[in-house]
Specification:
It is a single chain. This protein is of the alpha/beta class. The chain has one domain: Ribonuclease H-like superfamily/Ribonuclease H (Nucleotidyltransferase, domain 5), CATH 3.30.420. It has helices at 37-47, 68-75, 86-89, 96-108, 131-139, 148-158, 169-186, and strands at residues 6-11, 18-23, 29-34, 51-55, 113-114, 125-129, 189-194, 198-203, 208-210, 213-215. The two termini are 31 Å apart.
Length: 219
């Protein structure tokens, strides 16, 4: 790609694997999919990705209940799966996609520093994001679960993203993650959570007001 891109990654279980979308500042996309962590990391490294945003928990829950980031999103009406402790995740098949995400972070963090709430600077960085929260931020309102493929593709197009490259829902969600990565790079984002159990990053956008808070304002 002509300039150092950002990357968004949608995480699945062992069979589904990883779907990644690289996005440059002009909205041009490049997509990649693999079940192998090493292949995804090598692709990001070959691209020279500045920021990587991942749709999977970056840290396990310390007390076995939802993390502060998930509770903060819930306070503004955006529900996400509660992240368990690592021990619980290892025992239940449902959490295999989170285990895949943990393996990806372990491979990425030696090169891309995990966002800790501070300034990004010039070093490569990675972060956690959530496509549904990104879509709500772009829309300026809470979105329903139905028709999400059509709604999310339209939001990406309105953000200047080349949507014809995106062939499926996994690609669409990865592209939404890439917009969160771009927001972190450019400085227009809101971070839900804390440094201990991790932040979930969402781009700035029209405020989504709910009882208990507002999302998508610059911190």
């Amino acid at each position: 790609m002509p300039d150092a891109p950002v990357v968004g990654i949608d995480v699945g279980g062992e069979r589904k694997g990883f779907h990644a979308v690289a996005l440059d500042l002009a909205g041009r996309c490049e997509r990649f999919a693999s079940p192998e962590v090493a292949a995804v990391v090598d692709w990001c490294r070959d691209l020279g990705a500045r920021v990587i945003a991942i749709d999977a928990p970056c840290r396990w829950s310390l007390n076995g209940r939802s993390r502060p980031a998930e509770r903060a999103l819930a306070a503004v009406g955006i529900r996400a799966f509660a992240t368990p402790s690592a021990a619980v995740a290892a025992q239940h098949p449902f959490y295999r996609w989170m285990l895949s995400g943990a393996a990806l972070y372990a491979a990425i963090e030696p090169t891309w520093h995990l966002f800790d709430g501070g300034t990004v600077g010039d070093r490569p960085v990675c972060c956690e994001t959530f496509p549904h929260a990104v879509a709500c931020a772009l829309a300026g309102r809470l979105l329903p679960a139905r028709h999400k493929r059509t709604l999310r593709r339209a939001l990406l197009a309105a953000a200047g993203v080349e949507t014809h490259v995106l062939t499926g829902m996994d690609d669409i969600d990865a592209a939404l993650c890439a917009l969160a990565a771009r927001a972190l790079l450019l400085g227009g984002f809101h971070a839900f959570g804390d440094p201990v159990e991790g932040f979930i990053l969402v781009p700035d956008g029209p405020a989504v007001s709910r009882p208990g808070g507002t999302i998508c304002h610059r911190p």
